[in-house]
Amino acid sequence: MQLDLYTFDWSGVISNDIKPVYKSNMRLFDHFGIPRISLEEWKGRSTLSPVGILSDHGVTAEKKEIDELYEKHLNDVIREGVVPKVYLDAKEVLEFLKNRNKILSVVSSHPENNLLGEAKEYGLKIYFDLILAGSGEEKAERLRKTFTRFGKKPENVIYTGDTFKDIQEAKKAGVHSACVCNGYHERERLEKENPEFVLENLSELKNIELITS
Q1: Among residues of the chain, what percentage have pLDDT more than 70?
Q2: pTM
Q3: Domain assignments of the chain as residue spans, ordered by start
Q4: What is the pLDDT of residues 99-112, one digit of tens each?
Q5: C-alpha 102: how far from chain center
Q6: For residue 157, what are the β-bridge partners?
Q7: The CATH number of the domain covering residues in 5-16+85-212
Q8: How far is residue 91's CA from residue 200's CA, in Å, rounded to a whole number?
Q9: How far is 26 from 88, CA to CA, in rounded Å?
Q10: Cα dihedral value 95, 100, 103, 105, nearest 10
Q11: 63: confidence class by pLDDT, cuts 50, 70, 90
């Protein structure tokens, strides 16, 4: 197995944004008159977009309205000091892969403006050849677009996420799947989806590169 293209989810993989994202979702709950839920309960449902989780509670507002409200609340929360933080091993891993001439990309449902701002703030934007962010298309479709754009076959691509949905989307796209256990979902839940690689943290991705090159 030769890996030429490494694609990453953002939230829970590169950026530890669990607290600000949770608080933003709870402000959406407040806006629509829904009782708040605990952080742990919300993490268990975190594969759902704000539109999805609100829909489960009977909210019928338009997607555009919800997306705009969510981004506003997220920016408010960040301004109040609850900020996302880069995982400490992210830069080292990206630099390691880039030095081995790998193509690096992001496929994420995180709001595009926020993701690009975080990537710049973390000093990581320079490592990525492509960033696809925001809600809309399924991740599987974006993964297909990514490897097609770079002229790569799915068997030469790996997607690293942190939720069971990320694993499902990687499989749907036909690419290799890896997951980190220090993001939104815990190891036990991730392993039920039978990913090819289960990593304690992003640093272990370097081992995959070394054994597959």
Answers
A1: 99
A2: 0.93
A3: 5-16+85-212, 18-79
A4: 999 999 999 999 99
A5: 19
A6: 5
A7: 3.40.50.1000
A8: 17
A9: 27
A10: -30
A11: confident
| Surface-to-core class of residue 81, CB atoms within 10 Å of its CB (0-12 exposed, 13-18 middle, 19+ buried) | exposed
Two structure tokens written together for 60? 């019928």
Residue with tokens 């933003």: 24
101: closest CA among 120, 122, 124, 129? Answer: 129
Q: 3-class DSSP state for residue 150?
A: coil
176 within 8 A of 196, measured Cβ to Cβ: yes
Cα–Cα distances (Å) from 149 to 83, 93, 137, 213, in that order, read 33, 23, 16, 22
Q: Tell me which residue of 7, 16, 5, 14 sits closest to 203, measured CA to CA.
A: 14
Cα(45)–Cα(38) distance, integer angstroms: 11
Within 10 A of 206 (CB to CB), how many other CB atoms are there?
A: 16
